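Question (not urgent): is this output format expected?
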Amino acid sequence: MIEKPAPSLAERELAQAVKDSKAPAISRAAAVLRLLGKSETPQGLQPIARALGLNPSTCLYVLRALVAEELVAFDPDTKRYALEAGVLTLARQWLRRDRFADLAQAPLDRLAQGFGLTMLGVQIFGLDHIVVVAMSQSSQNFQLSTQVGSRFPALISATGRCIAAFGGYGEEELHRRFDTLRWEQAPTWEAWCEQVRQTRLQGFAVDSGNYIAGVTVVAAPVWRAPGRPSHALVAIGIGAMRERLPELEETLLASARNLSNQLSA
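Got this back:
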């Protein structure tokens, strides 16, 4: 008997979100779209239902509704589902009205080429996750394998330290979320709290090989309005970039502050 692969952490989180939702029909549809969006290949009914913890008949009902709305495509020959072009209409409308993505692209390009880095502009969704909404990559050999639309846990890496430092969240909630994070070289809770305190003082955060071994990540928060930061600029490079780290930190922080001024205006 062939053992079925265990659901990934992301799949378990999606399934739990569906279970906890107060609007289950919407939550199920959103979970299906996210799952198909992350999948490299079209998926059958049973794997989708299993990953999301749904009854197959319920999952089929959701899939048929999404097919009817042209958000999901169904191949009658393979009996598999994939995202349909209709999702581009929604994404295009969002990109058209999101000022951050437009305003951030020029500084991301300058930083990527000037420092030989991968640069990301991310939107922050509380303590749940961050989503890449803009990016730029240099012509250097090192490039991060990610793309616009990629999601990451909110508190991970340097961006997470910024969220913890400036979000006004309670220590108990931060500790609970911290314990669920996956790092290549995880810092202790105490060390991470000290890094968060340092982030609050200097205005930016640095992850030196904790999230990805040998990779340095620098992040600076961006505000659209007073309160918690809405976005962040993130620089990612190999350890050799440490020679220019002070220059990068200063330039990244200045770019983030300039973006905050533009957005709040």
